[in-house]
């Protein structure tokens, strides 16, 4: 059985419209509507125009433009939650513009299971994608994103203790925590209350969504460095500093031969 409930995509674009172009293409056939928030932090003076150009290709328009200082992940979380609350009873795919979800079954089937069983949010986990030999490819609109990033593994958590969990799909009334790592129901962070076994969570034994993370393109090193220099708690700068330093010490790439990173060719 499948659900006929409305499905929306919400995302926030703050730096890389080229990646947004590929991301919307990835989701356009599984959602009914797309809500793109532009996080205008002043670093790219042409950001709004570039996003408008990307969206015009899909017949879409910007949902909201927010001018705010850079790298405030709490503000990004606010944009996600504020957007989702506009349609609290709809289902929402929650995805940064460099995250490509791969669902284990058609999304309509997952939503149907959730509606039948009282589950209101679905989780997944990061699969870090890299270029050949652990490099950071340059991405253009005509790039084949999957071929440019043939390697998949898991290095963020071992290097910097970054949270690997992600809320990928939820009802609109469900808020998410910074980084969209966990759900908030009422005043309760779902991880702090019952973790993996929260009664509103789609059981992980029924499906755990792969979040292919294409953050690691040619622009990432500058961003890691900038965030690490903010020294602001809201930017999680210490985590970014660890990541930047590890890459620097490995000749500006990721050591994909390191066994704990579990890298394989997934092209």
Q: How does this model look, in words?
A:
Helix content is 30%, strand content 23%. The chain is built from nine helices and 13 strands. Strands 1, 2, 3, 4, 5, 6, 7, 8, 12 and 13 form a ten-stranded mixed beta sheet that branches. The two termini are 31 Å apart. 41% of the residues are buried.
Amino-to-carboxy terminus distance = 31 Å
Give the number of helices.
9
Strand-residue fraction?
Answer: 15-25%
Which overall shape is indicated by the principal axes computed on the Cα atoms?
globular
- Write down how many β-strands occur, each being a DSSP E stretch of 2 or more residues: 13
Secondary-structure element series: EHEHEHEEHEHEHEEEEHEHHE
Largest sheet: 10 strands, mixed
| Rg, Å, rounded | 18 Å
> How much helix is in the residues?
25-40%
Mean pLDDT: 94
Secondary-structure class: alpha/beta
Task: Provide the low-confidence segments as ranges.
Answer: none
């Amino acid at each position: 059985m499948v659900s006929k409930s409305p499905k929306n995509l919400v995302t926030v674009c703050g730096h890389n419209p080229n990646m947004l172009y590929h991301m919307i293409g990835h989701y356009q056939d599984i959602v009914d509507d797309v809500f793109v928030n532009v996080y205008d932090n002043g670093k790219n003076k042409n950001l709004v125009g570039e996003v408008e150009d990307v969206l015009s290709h899909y017949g879409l328009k910007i949902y909201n433009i927010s001018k705010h200082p850079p790298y405030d992940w709490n503000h990004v979380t606010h944009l996600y939650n504020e957007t989702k609350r506009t349609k609290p009873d709809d289902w929402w795919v929650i995805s940064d513009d460099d995250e490509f979800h791969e669902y284990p079954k058609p999304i309509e089937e997952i939503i149907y299971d959730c509606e039948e069983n009282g589950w209101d949010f679905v989780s997944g986990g990061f699969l870090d994608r890299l270029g050949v030999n652990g490099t950071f490819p340059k991405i253009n609109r005509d790039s084949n994103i999957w071929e440019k990033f043939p390697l998949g593994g898991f290095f963020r958590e071992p290097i910097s203790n970054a949270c690997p969990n992600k809320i990928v799909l939820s009802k609109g009334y469900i808020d998410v925590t910074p980084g969209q790592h966990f759900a908030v129901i009422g005043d309760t962070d779902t991880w702090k209350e019952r973790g993996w076994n929260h009664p509103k969570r789609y059981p992980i034994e029924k499906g755990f969504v792969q979040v292919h993370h294409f953050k690691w393109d040619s622009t990432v090193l500058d961003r890691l460095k900038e965030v690490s220099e903010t020294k602001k708690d809201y930017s999680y700068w210490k985590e970014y500093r660890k990541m930047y330093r590890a890459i620097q010490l490995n000749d500006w790439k990721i050591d994909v031969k390191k066994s704990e990173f579990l890298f394989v060719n997934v092209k």
